[in-house]
Write a structure and sequence with these properties.
With 429 residues, this protein is an alpha+beta fold. Helices cover 22% and strands 23% of the residues. The strands form five sheets. It has an eleven-stranded antiparallel beta sheet, sandwiched between helices. The chain has a four-stranded antiparallel beta sheet with strand order 8-7-11-10, with no helix packed on it. It has a two-stranded antiparallel sheet with strand order 1-2. The two termini are 36 Å apart. Belongs to the galactose-1-phosphate uridylyltransferase type 1 family.
Length: 429
């Protein structure tokens, strides 16, 4: 951290993050360090904290061991902490992180629960579960390093490639990435779709803040903010939250998109994602929402029984941190509307909809790869629910061959969204 910025009346120093006028006046970022050495950030939109009239609790009272402290091996000898490893699949070229430490993380829900309580909740003095991650008894939005990460940057760890069994078929490296958690709201019983647009605006700022800062870390090739929501997806904590993975490689899905984008540019001189957006706007039928800055549409070759892509209107936006203030507000409005309409998409017969399980995945340009110039920021939102009482399972064709078979058509998906509300969203008041 080297450059000093101002947010409200609070001063902070970050490497790449440039807050806009709204964030400077209405969001205060307060960093601290958890007791095991992980970074933690409060993002407050409450005026009392933004002004400095109130301050957050910075001390983590838990007696956690330093996460980088050396341990001991089976013979009782000192052993350095081991970073997660990743190996490259010679058949696909994909890097596969292997994070065995995640097997030891506590499970807080379901029949196999090993702990009670909610580690994402604000601290509750006197509560029997005191291993929560938030030092304060309240918060607005917080971001912190995952305690049980799939990837981790260990100080002094090398980036050299070695080989499994000494065979060059199987390269391996340390998985020198980073995993962070973003908690959207202190109310552990709320749903992301129920959050006010103002709170989602703070979440958007958190994505922008962390995208900028994580892109500055050595060895990071892709920053991936995402949200898994719903027990059916495997989420054990219903608390509204998301994650940010910073990969030391380009993930397979983005790699495929970059290959297609680059080939399209070489063939036509155009930008594939820009031209897809223009084509969807021209066709019109699959566009489900738009405002001043964003367009949401069901892609013409949608895989999932509910799938929506969201793209910025302005050209040249490669990552979330490049959005201006209006684009961030308009995104919060559209994301809120998308979540609420997603919950209403499947009718159970009572007109109340359902808490939709979904994944919201931010596809950003890679950090360093030269192909980034021909890419474009986009959100890919999807659910594997195909009816109020049915789930799409990825069976032999999808899982075995990656050959997707859709259970519906994009036009039907878009048609259902058209029943749920107008395409043109009202301007923010």
């Amino acid at each position: 951290m080297s450059r000093k910025e101002e947010a409200g009346s609070g001063a902070y120093e970050f490497e790449r993050y440039h807050p806009g006028a709204y964030a400077r006046a209405h969001i205060r970022i307060t960093p601290t360090i958890l007791s095991d050495g992980r970074q933690f950030f409060y993002l407050d939109d409450d005026p009392a904290y933004v002004s400095g009239a109130r301050t957050r609790e910075l001390k983590d009272p838990r007696p956690l061991a330093d996460r980088f402290a050396p341990g001991v091996d089976a013979d009782g000898n000192p052993a350095p902490v081991q970073a997660p490893q990743m190996r490259r699949d010679p058949l696909t070229g994909d890097w596969i992180p292997m994070a065995t430490a995640r097997m030891n993380r506590p499970i807080t829900a379901g029949p196999g629960a090993t702990a009670s309580g909610n580690p994402l909740a604000a601290r509750k003095p006197g509560d029997p579960y005191q291993d929560g991650e938030v030092p304060d008894t309240d918060y607005d939005v917080v971001v912190f390093e995952n305690r049980f990460p799939s990837m981790m940057q260990v100080p002094g760890a090398g980036t050299a490639t070695s080989y499994v069994d000494g065979n060059p078929l199987w390269p391996r490296r340390e998985a020198n990435g980073r995993c962070e958690v973003v908690c959207f709201d202190p109310d552990e019983s709320s749903l992301p779709a129920e959050l006010p647009v103002r709170r989602l605006r703070t979440v958007v700022e958190a994505w922008a803040f962390r995208t900028a800062e994580l892109s500055a870390l050595d060895g990071i090739e892709q920053v991936f903010p995402f949200e898994n929501h719903g027990q059916e997806i495997g989420v054990s904590l219903a608390h509204p939250h998301g994650q940010i993975y910073s990969y030391p490689f380009i993930a397979p899905r983005l790699e495929a998109e970059l290959r297609q984008s680059e080939a399209y540019h070489e063939r036509t001189g155009g930008n594939l994602l820009k031209d897809i957006l223009a084509a969807e706007l021209e066709a019109g039928e699959r566009v489900i929402m738009r405002n001043h800055s964003w367009v949401a549409y069901v892609p013409a070759a949608a895989r999932w029984p509910l799938e929506v892509h969201v793209a910025p209107v302005r050209d040249g936006v490669l990552s979330i941190d490049q959005l201006d203030d209006q684009e961030r507000w308009d995104l919060a409005q559209m994301y809120s509307t998308l979540l609420r309409r997603g919950n209403a998409f499947f009718d159970k017969g009572d007109g109340r909809g359902m808490d939709l399980p979904y994944i919201a995945a931010w596809h950003q340009a890679p950090v360093r790869d030269a192909r980034r110039v021909n890419y474009r920021l986009n959100l890919q939102f999807f659910s594997f629910r195909r009816a109020a009482n049915k789930i799409k399972y990825l069976a032999g064709s999808e899982s075995g061959m990656g050959a997707w078979i859709s259970d519906t058509t994009p036009e039907r998906i878009a048609g259902r969204f058209h029943e749920l509300g107008p395409v043109d969203l009202a301007d923010r008041g």
